[in-house]
Specification:
Pfam families: FMN_red. Its EC number is 1.-.-.-. It comes from Roseovarius aquimarinus. Keywords: Oxidoreductase. The protein is α/β, with parallel strands linked by helices and about 180 residues long. The chain contains 6 helices and 8 strands. It has one domain: 3-Layer(aba) Sandwich (Rossmann fold), CATH 3.40.50. A hairpin with a 2-residue loop joins strand 4 and strand 5 (about 80). Strands 1, 2, 3, 6, 7 and 8 form a 6-stranded parallel β-sheet that branches. It has a two-stranded antiparallel ribbon with strand order 4-5. Helix 1 (about 20-30) packs across helix 6. The protein binds flavin mononucleotide (FMN). Flavin mononucleotide (FMN) binds next to helix 1 and strand 4.
Length: about 180
């Protein structure tokens, strides 16, 4: 049987991003899968640029989304909203024809420095993706608050409650992918 393809997307670009660690943790919790790390370091959406031809890194992302069985999205909130990096990527993806996001399964997670774990940005991401017909795997919001305290030197999540939440959500995704 072929392995399911999981595309991990971090709404933060920095190398030591806690959200990058979080999506890696979720992909590990899924088990046997082909995991691709998407790169959201894309040019800003611009209709003129689009008219000249979709930029190569955007096309790569579109192709990866098309191939993926599920998206695993982790993002901080920035100023109580969705990160610009993630929103820009979604804007580009929303322009692909045919729609690459329709019925795509997705798990959303967030890690942030604040005590709500990026809840407001998480809600926004959920709302935008739902509008684009993404099939978000529902469940209690997975929010890593004070993220700087929750990951070890090895980049692994230390918090057992959160690890349990992630394991449950990825088990749900496994069921959904059959
Ligand atoms: C521009 C900016 C805005 C931020 N706004 C928030 C915020 O609204 N809520 C919050 O909890 N943390 C906020 N933070 C802190 C981030 O949660 C923190 O930097 C987090 O580690 C970013 O995720 P990362 O580790 O994946 O890069 C902000 C950080 C930046 C750079």
């Amino acid at each position: 049987m072929t392995k399911p393809v999981l595309l991990t997307l971090s709404g933060s670009l920095r190398k030591a991003s806690f959200n990058r660690m979080l999506v890696a943790e979720a992909a590990r919790a899924y088990g046997d899968a082909e995991v691709i790390e998407g790169d959201l370091n894309l040019p800003l959406y611009d209709g003129d640029v689009e008219d000249e031809g979709v930029p190569a890194p955007v096309q790569t992302l579109i192709d990866q989304v098309r191939r993926a069985d599920a998206l695993v999205i982790g993002s901080p909130e920035y100023n109580k909203g969705i990160s610009g990096v993630l929103k820009n990527a979604i804007d580009w993806l929303s322009r692909a024809k045919p729609n690459v996001l329709a019925d795509k399964k997705a798990v959303i997670l967030s890690a942030a420095a604040g005590r709500t774990g990026g809840e407001t940005g998480h809600f926004m991401t959920h709302s935008i993706l739902t509008q684009l017909q993404v099939n978000v795997i529902h469940g209690p919001l997975i929010l890593v608050a004070a993220a700087h305290n929750e990951f070890g030197e090895d980049g692994r999540l230390k918090n057992e409650f959160l690890s349990g939440q992630i394991a449950d959500r990825m088990a749900r995704l496994r069921e959904e992918l059959g």
